[in-house]
Amino acid sequence: MPHSDLQPELLLSLYRSMLRIRHFEEKLAEGVLAKEVRTPCHLYVGQEAVAAGICEGLTKEDRVFGTHRSHGHYLAKGGDMNALMAEIYGKKTGCSGGHGGSMHIIDTEVGFAGAQPLVAGTIPVAVGSALAAQIREEDSVTVVFFGDGAVEEGVFHEAMNFAGLRKLPLIFVCENNLYSSHLHIDERRAMNNIYETGKLFNMGAMRVDGNDVVALYEAGRRAVSEARSGQHSVIIEAMTYRLRGHVGAIDYLKDQDVTDIRDVNELGEWRDRDPIQRLKKEILEDEAATEEELHTLEEEVLAEVEAAHRFAQESPFPKAEEFAEFVYPAKN
Ligand SMILES: Cc1ncc(C[n+]2csc(CCOP(=O)(O)OP(=O)(O)O)c2C)c(N)n1
Ligand SMILES: [Mg+2]
């Protein structure tokens, strides 16, 4: 019995998408630890299935908004890897001209409408994007990714209400990784039931295994079709886990004696649910590809990441006199 009805090409595309994020961030982590990278980095390792699964079902015209932890959203939506690495290295060739760093990334050419560090900050902007699409009778949907911590900001509820009222072509994707910085969700919420918020606002509401990329792809496709047709907005709650720390690059999986406040056993349990290993196993069991084909694919991804790293290292920094560009309006 195959694990999935999806075509092999689609499974391989999801696999490549997750691997690109994983290897990109593992390379980046080396740069962070070596202090080559000076911008704070919130790594997405462990959560790749969410970005990959949801973005696979979007078109270039669909708009995606991210968070402080958005390297994965940017890459999965088709953002240029060289430009992302260069941005995080503070280089002029970066996707934000080297002025933004890890948390201010954007590539409107591919529909990555922007990420920024204020928790819940992009949620109302995404409402505006979806409202504009509705008024202009565009066919696009808007997707906004955010963490479980963002649900504690009042603006989340205001945005949900407005989207629900207007049936905006908007999909709220909450990545519930159980933690907001160092606080567990059980210490912050009376109920661990974020997806049910959708029911209060007359939306579609789904909770999905956030480490199962195929389930996310299927949930995303359904949500997109409902939101695009004007049926209603949708909230998807993806239950997942970040395998690295809140910020920075320490790899608790390699150094099991050191952890943040999280329990080593908890980390171990989630490591065993690694979304990439899980899809790999399914692909092999379903004979959608051979071990050798997957190896070749991974080598290609590693070469792409190495090239992006070289590109970032060799690119120039912006000039000091250019720092105020994009901050103040140009003088006449
Ligand atoms: C408005 C606001 N308050 C506090 C912070 C500090 N802060 C940065 S990330 C973060 C945790 C966010 O948790 P969550 O939304 O679950 O995302 P995750 O880090 O788990 O991906 C906090 C509190 C902030 N950036 N913005
Ligand atoms: Mg969180």
Question: Could you characterize what this model shows?
Answer:
The protein is α/β, with parallel strands linked by helices. It has a single domain (8-242, 252-316), classed as Thiamin diphosphate (ThDP)-binding fold, Pyr/PP domains (Rossmann fold). It contains 11 helices and 8 strands. A 6-stranded parallel beta sheet has the order 2-1-3-4-8-7, with helices on both faces. It has a two-stranded antiparallel ribbon with strand order 5-6. Helix 6 (154-166) links the parallel strand 3 and strand 4. Helix 1 (8-33) packs antiparallel against helix 10 (275-285) and helix 2 crosses helix 8. The longest helix has 26 residues, at 8-33. The chain is globular, with a radius of gyration of 19 Å. It starts with 7 loop residues before the first helix and ends in an 18-residue tail after the last helix. The model has no long low-confidence stretch (mean pLDDT 95). It binds thiamine diphosphate (TPP) and magnesium ion (MG).
Q: What would you report as the Rg, rounded to the nearest angstrom? A: 19 Å
Largest sheet: 6 strands, parallel
Q: Tell me the fraction of residues in β-strands, as a range.
A: 5-15%
N to C succession of SSEs? HHEHHEHEHEEEHEHEHHH
The first-level CATH class name: Alpha Beta
**DSSP summary: helix tally:** 11
- Which second-level CATH architecture applies? 3-Layer(aba) Sandwich
Helix content: 40-55%
Small molecules bound: thiamine diphosphate, magnesium ion
Distance between the termini: 68 Å
Q: Features of this protein?
A:
332 residues, Rossmann fold, two-stranded antiparallel ribbon, 11 helices, 8 strands, binds thiamine diphosphate, binds magnesium ion, six-stranded parallel sheet, alpha/beta
